[in-house]
Automatic annotation (TrEMBL):
Its EC number is 3.1.3.15. GO terms for cellular component: cytoplasm. It catalyses: L-histidinol phosphate + H2O = L-histidinol + phosphate. The lineage of its organism: Eukaryota, Fungi, Dikarya, Ascomycota, Pezizomycotina. Pathway: Amino-acid biosynthesis; L-histidine biosynthesis; L-histidine from 5-phospho-alpha-D-ribose 1-diphosphate: step 8/9. It comes from Achaetomium macrosporum. GO terms for molecular function: histidinol-phosphatase activity. SUPFAM superfamilies: PHP domain-like. This is Histidinol-phosphatase. Keywords: Amino-acid biosynthesis, Histidine biosynthesis, Hydrolase. Residues 5-235 form the PHP domain. One of its GO terms (biological process) is L-histidine biosynthetic process. Belongs to the PHP hydrolase family. HisK subfamily. It holds the Pfam family PHP.
Length: 328
């Protein structure tokens, strides 16, 4: 019973992703998904939060388009949910942003919409600077956090902790995203920039940074406390990392705690649906994980301005593999 709990389309993330939302759902059916979680990015509220690709031709127009686009997304997702109900279970969600604490109220408001089944709690920034856009911006984030990657990780994890406390997402997205452009840990072909991202001392484990590792454990324990899930997100593999998110040492700690994993491709177009899924499943099996968790809308609930009842469902990795139809 293959699935993803985290996906995007070019229709509602223009410039950031590709393809129409309906085409992505059709491709998901083709590769054997039984469930797809739609999680377009939530709207942001400040010009300073726009990415470089959104500044032209007019940052004001780009910002003004975000909220109406989100409403259009929810309407289209609901239409497709009904249209393809006999072929795939469609969950409607969004990916949260935590650029600053003020976003807590917006996340809660968006999550209360009757069409929304869940949301992914993610951070893409540290001190308001994007950390996964490119190596140059990652270097700016390092500088904003004090000039070292150790400091950036501490800031990122503290901001993540604030997000977890305020909105308690069922799915915690790409837990250790700073790995992507790190020059110190966890990077292979993903990038790393021009050497301006602070110190370049290599470390083998986040545990070498005592304060950072203490924050990792703190955050994991908090997620355990409210019964949230970490996603095993395979997008890091297609971006050149050696392991999916989260890294092995974090995943091992999560398994030790008894934590649950969900599974995501974090696709940004049809070409990325289920990318590296077999590698991701192998990775989890190597950690001793035997089942994954997803959400399911309870039939006959919701409608007329009421939310559908959403329940948890476990899927064994063997069942997950059996439904995939990939040419890998």
């Amino acid at each position: 019973m293959a699935f993803t709990m985290h996906s995007h389309s070019g229709q509602f993330c223009p410039g950031h992703a590709k393809d129409q939302l309906e085409d992505i759902i059709l491709h998901a059916i083709k590769v054997g998904y039984k469930t797809i979680g739609l999680t377009e990015h939530m709207p942001r509220t400040a010009l300073s939060d726009l990415y470089p690709e959104e500044l032209l031709p007019s940052p004001e127009k780009s910002l003004a388009a975000l909220a109406p686009r989100h409403e259009a997304y929810l309407a289209e997702a609901a239409r497709l949910q009904t249209k393809y109900a006999s072929q795939i279970h469609v969950l409607v969600g969004f990916e949260g942003e935590w650029i600053r604490p003020a976003y807590a109220s917006l996340i809660r408001s968006l999550a209360a919409h009757p069409a929304v089944d869940y949301f992914v709690g993610s951070l893409h920034h540290a001190r308001g600077v994007p950390i996964d856009f490119d190596a140059a911006m990652y270097a700016q984030a390092v500088a904003a956090c004090g000039g070292t990657e150790e400091a950036l990780w501490a800031v990122y994890l503290d901001e993540q902790f604030a997000m977890l406390r305020e909105v308690r997402p069922r799915v915690v997205g790409h837990f250790d995203l700073p790995r992507l452009f790190s020059r110190c840990i966890g990077r292979s072909a993903a990038g790393g920039g021009d050497g301006n991202a602070g110190e370049s001392k290599k470390i083998k484990s986040l545990k070498e940074w005592k304060g950072v590792w203490e924050r990792v454990v703190r955050n994991l324990e908090f997620v355990m406390g409210y019964e949230g899930w970490l996603e095993c997100n395979t997008s890091g593999l297609r971006k050149g990392l050696d392991e999916a998110y989260p890294s092995r040492e974090i995943a091992e700690e999560w398994v030790r705690m008894g934590g649950r994993f969900t599974f995501s491709d974090d696709s940004h177009g049809t070409a990325q649906v289920a990318t590296n899924y077999h590698r991701g499943l192998d990775y989890l099996e190597g950690l001793g994980v035997r089942e994954l968790w997803a959400l399911e809308r309870r039939p006959g609930t919701g409608g007329e301005g009421r939310k559908a009842e959403v329940v948890e469902r476990s899927v064994t990795i063997d069942e997950f593999r059996a439904s995939l139809r990939l040419e890998e």
